[in-house]
Amino acid sequence: xxxxxARLIEAGSASGGGDADAATQDRGVQALVQxxxxxxxxxxxxxxxxxxxxxxxxxxxxxxAEEMGLEAEVIHEIVLATLxxxxxxxTVEPDLLSRSSxxxxxxxxxxxxxxxxxxxxxxxxxxxxxxxxxxxxxHECYDGTGYPDGLRGREIPIxxxxxxxxxxxxxxxxxxxxxxxxxxxxxxxxxxxxxxxQFDPEVVEALLRVLDRQVSRLSAPSGPVVVLADPGGDSTAxxxxxxxxxxxxxxxxxxxxxxxxxxxxxxxxxxxxxxDDDEEGALRLLREIRRxxxxx
Length: 296
Prior knowledge:
Layout: H1 2-14, H2 22-44, H3 53-67, H4 72-84, H5 94-98, H6 105-112, H7 114-122, H8 131-137, H9 158-172, H10 184-193, H11 201-213, E1 225-229, H12 237-245, E2 249-253, H13 256-265, E3 270-273, H14 279-291
Helix pairs in contact: 1-2, 2-4, 3-4, 3-9, 3-11, 4-8, 4-9, 8-9, 9-10, 13-14
């Protein structure tokens, strides 16, 4: 899937110029962003900690860029860079990315290799936008203590400064094996605490203004819980991705017995059942749920 994303971007970049009018080009860019959004979402869909995270981050990054009055072309760069920033995670050992215990200094350095990994995967593409510098520098810190080049302040591309704050905020709202998810107020307080150190203060101000106006917040872990029973495995992938992108917490179950166990362990807001391969099993699950008084 990582290679598919790279090929899609290459094809979209190659067709981005020409004599097409501005409206047609803009529709093409939006279509490209939406398709990349879906493909990256599929890369994350089986990650219990990151599912839907990139989608939420790109929506928030767009809102912050618009709040700061950036030009449309720069906003396109930022949105696409947000979607592609971590594509290089596929080059890092999965064990390191899912480790629940503390990483050693050497292991941290290996995880940091996802940045050059992203650049290697995308470096051959002739982007019509300045996407690669944003990806390269989205882990820089405003005070110069970040990586890979130790840039500080306005040396860091504005897109990278926006992604740095947005990514951190969305990550703080997400569960990790080594910590609980923060509340929205706690995450906002952390942004303010590290403004001028890790984050650009101007970006933090814009981000907080955007968050104050949002009716639908981004805190996936505290959102509605959906148990998704899909014995077939793949038939509900698109549906699951949409649920994640809407900020719902999805508990997947490979079979109806597993789904029933999940329902009894943690009463969800919704149970979604795929009956394509086993209609009788699906009906049996629903009957068991209705009979269980503990779930009323």
